[in-house]
Design goal:
Layout (H helix, E strand, L loop, with lengths): L1 E2 L8 E4 L2 E11 L7 E8 L5 E7 L3 E5 L1 E12 L2 E6 L5 E4 L15 E7 L4 E6 L3 E9 L12 E6 L4 E5 L7 E5 L4 E6 L2
Antiparallel strand pairs: 1-6, 2-3, 2-6, 3-4, 4-5, 7-8, 7-10, 8-9, 10-11, 12-13, 12-15, 13-14, 15-16
Length: 188
């Protein structure tokens, strides 16, 4: 058990029979009312984000989480299969636990968040940036570089993002996996 004074970003707590990750928090002291801690919490099971205020001095259950490196193997009709690179254990994870499945590439390393006491996977985090090849895009119009115009492009993983007009098929680009956007073209 811990007190509200120990709340920090990234910690996981057991609240209302669910596991929640603290995204933001703020200790609020007012002359008119009792102190409290305003938090923004994200559910580790559903992904839902809520705002909740804890009265000062409230006790809560802190849950120990572990991040482990796994390698993506393949997708089948039951889900996504990952392998631990140290002991070769495999784990099957459902699509709703992975943010950005369209960027998964066989052989890539990801972080899987586990509930430490129960040994159950909670979520999968992809690298924040990836270098991927453009497999299809319309040809750019020569000389049309004065504007910030974008066009759709399909990547080697099947993801579709908007890229600048000068990007062509076969180009390697750096992609931001969090907001699913183009960063830059990579020189070969």
């Amino acid at each position: 058990m811990a007190f509200t004074t120990e709340i920090r970003n990234g910690m996981c707590i057991n609240h209302n029979n669910d596991l929640w990750s603290v995204i933001e928090f703020q200790h609020v002291k007012s002359a008119r009312s009792a102190a409290f801690v305003r938090t923004k919490l994200k559910s580790m099971t559903t992904g839902k984000t809520v705002e909740y205020s804890f009265p000062a001095g409230t006790r809560y259950d802190e849950v120990r989480m572990e991040r482990r490196k796994y390698q993506f193997l393949y997708k089948d009709d039951q889900g996504y299969n990952f392998m631990n690179n140290e002991n070769y254990d495999q784990v099957l994870i459902q699509e709703n636990m992975i943010d950005g499945t369209e960027f998964l590439k066989e052989g890539m390393d990801v972080d899987i968040l586990f509930h430490a006491e129960k040994e159950t996977p909670l979520s999968v985090t992809l690298p924040p940036q990836m270098i991927l090849e453009v497999v299809y895009t319309e040809p750019g119009v020569r000389g049309d570089t004065a504007t910030n115009a974008m066009k759709p492009a399909r990547l080697e993983t099947g993801a579709e993002i908007k890229v600048p007009l000068f990007v062509n098929e076969g180009d390697k680009i750096k992609v931001d996996t969090q907001n699913r956007s183009y960063i830059e073209r990579v020189k070969s």
